[in-house]
């Protein structure tokens, strides 16, 4: 969902109310590995991520993922 949010917005905030700070830090770092993004902050029970200055088109990447075979790790 974060990848699709980056199609329209450069910054995405993820609400982590009710979780411990260590848990939403883990979520943020895992997101960074799954979606090309930069972590901005973990303040106020939110994970804020920025799309960054990447030069690739996200639409092309999404189309490639939808048309290729799925690899299981």
TrEMBL record:
Coiled-coil region list: none
GO biological process: Group II intron splicing
Protein name, per record: CRM domain-containing protein
